[in-house]
Amino acid sequence: MKNRPLKLPNKDIVQRYKLRKPLYVTRPFLPALADLNKYLKKIWKSQWVTNNGVNHVLLEKKLAAYLKVKNNSLFCNGTLALQLAVNALRLTGEVITTPFTFAATPHVLYWNNIRPVFCDIQEDTYNLDVHKIESLITPETTAILAVHVFGNPCDVEALEKIAQNHGLKIIYDAAHAFGVEVNGVGIGNFGDASMFSFHATKIFSTIEGGCLACRSSDIKERVDYLRNFGIKSEEEIVVPGINAKMNEIQAAIGLIQLKAVDREIKKRKRLIEFYKEGLKNVPGIILPRYLDNVKYNYQSFVVRINGQEYGTSRDCLYGLLRQMNIVARKYFYPLCSHYSCYKSLPSANPVNLPVAEKISKEVLSLPLYGELTKEEVNLICNILKDIHHENKKA
Ligand SMILES: *Cc1c(COP(=O)(O)O)cnc(C)c1O
Fold first, then answer.
1. What is the pTM of this model?
2. Helical packing angle, 54-67 and 248-279, nearest 10°
């Protein structure tokens, strides 16, 4: 039983379920064109299309309230927000981070001439393993760059303690964690700075965009200069900044979407209930954990496939679903520590990252977006069950 090859089941299953139109892992949640047109008319009339316009000012304020944070700055995308946060905090040397994330996380360190040091993750949250961080700290370490992956909060208290004990800064890549709260506290209040992404694949979107919540108003002041070439006044440039500003059309989309985001979260929460019900007794499918003291945003629905128990490996399942036109995704595989640009780092050695290596081979993001129907979720659950049964028979 144990060593049975994890083979593809018979072709009938694919024929039986093959969809005519593909179901993607996500779909951008866009505003009604009529709503956007109202804003566009005003923007065209005013001719104020970027550079801290009225929509920008309003969105920055409204998002600070929604995220329950004190200092908030908008950006043209989340990556530049994070990159400039690293710069504003004047980090150097080495920064400890996770390999189980999107490429942008280690890349922002590279762009600041900092060496990423990869640390293993925890099996329950897929976030940085707080017990493995301290052994990686060297005299060169200046910060921890943690990710609230899939919107699951990191162990923020333990991270805070480690940072305090060793004089390190903490930056959170909260790209997935828009609106997440821990014990009623907005997730952006932890650490020195937190970045939220408004990319089209994220729950709250301005198509491209992002924001940075900073603990200190001095850091906010510096990132605000950095995002606009360091311009203080017509004749005064105070830092060698870059262009990372959000424009008025992006901000208008944000203002419309902010009114709709809670409804989108609610729809996704309901769909996840159907997923949980449909998949709860399928051997080898490990469902995500949800804690009572956390307000989630249901950014994604990620299960894990234990190939031995399920009867088929994650990769075979992924391939079968693809053939049926169900486009699940292997977030995050490969690990960042496997990228050719990072794999020669000592910390990238798979021996140091056993949990991350294992998790990245098991995870599968299933379709989730507000417009997905209960019937579609049930269909996906039935397919996952049938694939299991076919393979157990074989
Ligand atoms: C989306 C994402 C980013 C990048 O955000 P952009 O707004 O697309 O630049 C960074 N980190 C993680 C974990 C992400 O998922």
1. 0.96
2. 30
